[in-house]
Amino acid sequence: MAKLNNYFRDTIEEMRYNVTWPSTTELQKSAGLVLLGSLVFAAVVGVMDVSFNKALDAFYQSFAR
C-alpha cells in the first residue's frame, strides 16, 4: 500500500511542479483550431457522402429502366 501512496504522491508532485501547463490564451487558440479542423473534416465527409449517394442512386437507376 505504501508503494501506491508513493506513486500517487509523486504523480501529484510531478503534475503540480514539473509539468508546463499552457496559458489560457494558448488553450483557447488550440481549442479553436481543433474545432475548426473538426468542422472542415465534417464538411468534407458530408460532401463525399452526398456525392457518393447521388452517384450510387444514378448507377442503380440505370439498371431499373
Automatic annotation (TrEMBL):
Membrane topology note: Single-pass membrane protein
Signal peptide: none
Keywords: Cell membrane, Membrane, Protein transport, Translocation, Transmembrane, Transmembrane helix, Transport
InterPro entries assigned: SecE_bac, SecE_sf, Translocase_SecE/Sec61-g
Name of protein: Protein translocase subunit SecE
Purpose: Essential subunit of the Sec protein translocation channel SecYEG. Clamps together the 2 halves of SecY. May contact the channel plug during translocation.
Primary localisation category: membrane
Gene3D superfamilies: Preprotein translocase secy subunit (1.20.5.1030)
The keyword Transmembrane is annotated on this UniProt entry: yes
Family: Belongs to the SecE/SEC61-gamma family.
Annotated localization: Cell membrane; Membrane
Gene name tied to this protein: secE
Record carries keyword Endoplasmic reticulum: no
Transmembrane segments annotated in the record for this chain: 31-52
Subunit (UniProt): Component of the Sec protein translocase complex. Heterotrimer consisting of SecY, SecE and SecG subunits. The heterotrimers can form oligomers, although 1 heterotrimer is thought to be able to translocate proteins. Interacts with the ribosome. Interacts with SecDF, and other proteins may be involved. Interacts with SecA.
